[in-house]
Amino acid sequence: MTTIYFIRHGQSEANSKGIIQGHADFPLSELGMRQAELAGKWFANVELDAIYASDLGRAMVTADHIAVHQDLKVQSWPRLREVGLGPLEGKTREEMAIDFPQLKAEALLTSGIQGTEPVKNLTERCAHLVEKMTRTHPDGSIAAVSHGGFIGIFLTYMIAGTDWYKMNRPFMIGNTGITKVSLSQTGKAAIHYTNRTEHLDIEGNLLHSSTIAY
Questions:
Q1: What share of the chain has pLDDT > 90, as a percent?
Q2: Is residue 94 among the annotated active site residues?
Q3: Domains of the chain
Q4: 95 is an active site residue
């Protein structure tokens, strides 16, 4: 059985300003750095065999805070990137609504707008993730630092397979939210929990930020 802890990156400067990121690279905010530090401390009590991260800076920096507490090097893996959103990237939701009014009735991550990442690519990414993790770490415990949109898609893929895009994705993943999934060697999943953020509770002060994921 392969155990994967998915972690969304800490709050980025774009998150704090309501800017859509996709593949655009924005650094962590001051709050995001603190969130990443606290997530790293939470993993000090978890035995990991490997740490993977999206190659985008906000994920790599978050992963580095986890690696501080493990005798492991972060492995950059572009397949863990956020969904590519092409012409939507760098816009606020208000700007997007003006430039692409049709999105008011469409799911942002699967809109099909030219220049955004196709469903086929996302499905292939999910399938490759399952294949690689179960083959490379058949009995391992892995941390995978990724992004809210992609984590939600992967969880839906684990439930619905290649029809995931037809479903309403119910998962809300906050900054540094931790999700635990087990995969059998045949690729069947058990979702233990999603979006755990108790590591952000510092003396009753929750260091939460927006759950807007993209």
A1: 78
A2: no
A3: 2-206 (3.40.50.1240)
A4: no
